[in-house]
Prior knowledge:
The chain has three helices and no strands. With 73 residues, the protein is mainly alpha-helical.
Amino acid sequence: MDAMDRALEFESRKMSGMTTSDRVESSREVKALILELNEIYKKDKNEEIMDVMKRLTVIKRKIEKRLLGRPTA
């Protein structure tokens, strides 16, 4: 399962000290991984895949929160 290996490798990456372009690239990569794992999950219904997707979603939200920044109201 190549997508699962890539997802676990992405999860173990260091996320500190990233530039904005690194964050954009990582956000796109993790989105593609989540969608790929979702297609596999639709066929297999394996709970392990769902757990990995949930953890990747948390990472994706953190990256996107940092990209968007705080609203200046």
